[in-house]
């Protein structure tokens, strides 16, 4: 199977079986999504969704969040992983939005990564979800699934290398959706420790599954 045929088969499968693919984070506007994605680093979306309603109620815009002190915000984030850093990041992010972006969430990766707590992955999420830009956020799920399915080469050893390979072969208009396809597949089927290969419609082309059979 050629690389092109592999990508076509995977995309066709997801088109048929996962026609609706979107973030599981709950948000109403770009500011709320930015807060949620910053909190989601090394944390489940489920935990973030339990935490954000109180934060959004108390700090509905960057204006209120920028005024918060560490001691005021920290209790809202206590149950999230790395609460100290994320509390500082959220306050710093809100202040920078007001100081440099007129209170609006910028929509370029280059601008977003200037914000505290925002790396390339987070910036790619924001721009692809809000603006459907062809940016591929590579988290642990995307990294694992793309490797196992043979969408990327073994030498792609970093998230950036995986991102570049995926963007090269996925049609530009589908990149923002393919991001969620790979995440959801990794979250519910292609699990890290005990993948549900018997339930996966892509096992016939999966390099990981084929190697497992040979063992």
From TrEMBL:
Tell me the GO molecular function terms. 4 iron, 4 sulfur cluster binding; class I DNA-(apurinic or apyrimidinic site) endonuclease activity; DNA binding; DNA N-glycosylase activity; metal ion binding
Instruction: Give the record's cofactor note, including how many are bound.
Output: Binds 1 [4Fe-4S] cluster.
Entry-linked SUPFAM superfamilies: DNA-glycosylase (SSF48150)
- Keywords of this protein's UniProt record, alphabetized? 4Fe-4S, DNA damage, DNA repair, DNA-binding, Endonuclease, Glycosidase, Hydrolase, Iron, Iron-sulfur, Lyase, Metal-binding, Nuclease
Q: Which PROSITE patterns match?
A: ENDONUCLEASE_III_1, ENDONUCLEASE_III_2
List the EC numbers from the record: 4.2.99.18
Keyword Amino-acid biosynthesis present in the record's keywords: the answer is no
UniProt xrefs under CDD domains: ENDO3c
Q: What are the names of the required cofactors?
A: [4Fe-4S] cluster
Q: Where is the HhH-GPD domain?
A: 39-188
- What is known about what this protein does? DNA repair enzyme that has both DNA N-glycosylase activity and AP-lyase activity. The DNA N-glycosylase activity releases various damaged pyrimidines from DNA by cleaving the N-glycosidic bond, leaving an AP (apurinic/apyrimidinic) site. The AP-lyase activity cleaves the phosphodiester bond 3' to the AP site by a beta-elimination, leaving a 3'-terminal unsaturated sugar and a product with a terminal 5'-phosphate.
Record HAMAP family: Nth
Name listed for the protein in its UniProt record: Endonuclease III
Task: State the organism named in the record.
Answer: Sediminibacterium goheungense
């Amino acid at each position: 199977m050629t690389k092109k045929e592999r990508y076509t088969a995977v995309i066709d499968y997801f088109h048929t079986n996962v026609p609706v693919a979107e973030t599981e984070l709950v948000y109403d506007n770009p500011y709320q999504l930015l807060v949620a994605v910053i909190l989601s680093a090394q944390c489940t979306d489920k935990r973030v969704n339990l935490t954000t309603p109180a934060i959004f109620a108390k700090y509905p815009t960057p204006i209120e969040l920028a005024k918060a002190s560490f001691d005021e915000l920290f209790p809202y984030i206590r149950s999230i992983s790395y609460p100290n850093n994320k509390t500082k990041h959220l306050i710093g992010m809100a202040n920078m939005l007001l100081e440099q972006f007129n209170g609006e969430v910028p929509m370029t990766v280059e601008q977003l990564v200037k914000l505290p707590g925002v790396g390339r992955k987070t910036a790619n999420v924001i721009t692809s979800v809000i603006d459907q830009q062809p940016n591929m956020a590579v988290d642990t799920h995307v990294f694992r699934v793309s490797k196992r399915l043979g969408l990327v080469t073994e030498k792609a050893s970093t998230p950036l290398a995986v991102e570049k390979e995926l963007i090269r072969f996925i049609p530009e208009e589908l990149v923002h959706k393919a991001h969620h396809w790979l995440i959801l597949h990794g979250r519910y089927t292609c699990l890290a420790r005990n993948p549900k290969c018997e339930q996966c419609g892509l096992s016939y082309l999966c390099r990981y599954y084929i190697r497992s059979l040979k063992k």
